[in-house]
Amino acid sequence: TAAGHRATTAAGHRTTTAAGHRATTSGRGRAAAGGAARPTAAAAAIVTDIVVCGLGPAGRALAHRCLASGMSVIAVDPAPSRQWTATYAAWADELPGWLDPAVTAATVARPVAWGARRHELDRAYVVLDTKRLQDSLDLTGAEIVAERAVRLDRHGVTLASGRTLTAERVIDARGIARSPARAEQTAYGVLVDETAAAGMEPLFMDWRADNGAHPAAPRSFLYAVPLGGGTMLLEETCLAGRPALDTGELRTRLRHRLRARGIALGGDEPVERVRFPVEGGRPGQRAFGAAGGFTHPATGYSVAAALAAADAAAAGENLWPPSARAVRALRAAGLRALLALPPADLPAFFDAFFDLPAPLQRAYLSGRTDLAGTVAAMGALFASLPAGSRFRIAAATSGIPVRSRGRGGSAIME
User: Fold this and answer.
1) Which among 60, 287, 290, 368 could disulfide-bond with 172, CB atoms 3.0 to 4.6 Å apart, if both were Cys?
2) 199 φψ region: left (φ > 0), alpha (ψ -120 to 50), beta (else)
3) 58 contact partners, CB below 8 Å, separation of at least 6
4) In this structure, are residues 152 and 167 in contact, taking their beta carbons and an 8 Å threshold?
């Protein structure tokens, strides 16, 4: 609040701002008070079950499920009431049973993917209503601290104001910081009326070369999904790059592609810009969501995995058994393979992937702990590729530096 004191929100949780000093939880005792110095043993008696730092989709889902299980929760975020604006989507079979069905804005029963050929995927895909998703992850009963966490350890959080909070567990759900060393995904999209989309079918990814890019330039694909309410998102996406294509280039490509398909834009359409790392995070029990290594490096997806794992994380279960760590390593190898392929090879690569049986596709895209399925999918894909692609992938995944014949960092193994 303006005076920096405690305010009760409409949802029923209390919010403490940077000027406040003591945060009282919702009936389970007090968080530690004071400045930067560590509290005394008496003052630091831990009575709060968990502090969750970061209230994006992963952190908010974890805090919500902790509250649902009866835990006392402090949630820390510098802007806890900020409305999410990104588009979130998932495979329907990834979502947990506890999630309110009303958060689904649209369902695509059989989405389509294009490499050089058309593939109809036998797996339902859902686009989420971002506002409903955020609202459904209710935090009533949590202590909301509107500050920035600057130091986290096993039982404590130091805030930018110097305050400290203590709890039985501290979880970092603040996402991944950008870095030139990390591959990123970028996208530029417009929201259009479905009638203006000229009957375009929903597209999970479309790698066809009608976006005006030079044949040797890093590739991008079209993502086209309904958002509900008669609106469709048309988005040009750089799957992964180090560096990734900038959104200005993606805007140019999207407009060229849509013109080529007879879709006219008025110039006043709402715009979505996307840029986030697909590498990074720290697997373990003290981080969750993208911060905890949940981002699939070869797809960029993480929200559905976080939603699915929220109950297990709330219960303190081990989210990273050996199988999950091995899958993470294999997925990282998959990213290196994508970065190593010449741009012209990518459509054939994705044709081969979408020719795989649906269970193998599912294992690679969603099986965070499915080591056998991931190995089987990657092995089958590798065997189906041309010899030249197999050589480059083998070199990239073994760490041998091989430079692409194409131009641009998103097609070079670094």
Assistant:
1) 287
2) left
3) 173, 175, 288, 289, 290, 291, 292, 294, 302, 303, 306, 310
4) no
Type of residue found at 8: T
pLDDT in tens, the chain (414 residues): 333 333 333 344 555 554 443 333 333 333 333 333 344 443 445 689 999 999 999 999 999 999 999 999 999 999 999 999 999 999 999 999 999 999 999 999 999 999 999 999 999 999 999 999 999 999 999 999 999 999 999 999 999 999 999 999 999 999 999 999 999 999 999 999 999 887 899 999 999 999 999 999 999 999 999 999 999 999 999 999 999 999 999 999 999 999 999 999 998 999 999 999 999 999 999 999 999 999 999 899 999 999 999 999 999 999 999 999 999 999 999 999 999 999 999 999 999 999 999 999 999 999 999 999 999 999 999 999 988 889 888 888 776 555 544 443 343 323
Cis previous bond, 283, omega within 30: no
- In 3D space, the residue among 113, 144, 180, 130 whose CA is nearest the CA of residue 25 turns out to be 144
CA distance 406 to 272: 28
Domains and CATH numbers, the chain: 1-85+131-176+280-319 (3.50.50), 184-277 (3.30.70), 321-411 (no CATH)
352 vs 172: CA distance, rounded Å: 38
> Which residues make beta-bridge pairs with 107?
126
Distance CA 375, CA 125 (A): 24
Cβ neighbours for 146, distance < 8 A, ≥ 6 positions apart:
15, 16, 17, 18, 77, 78, 79, 80
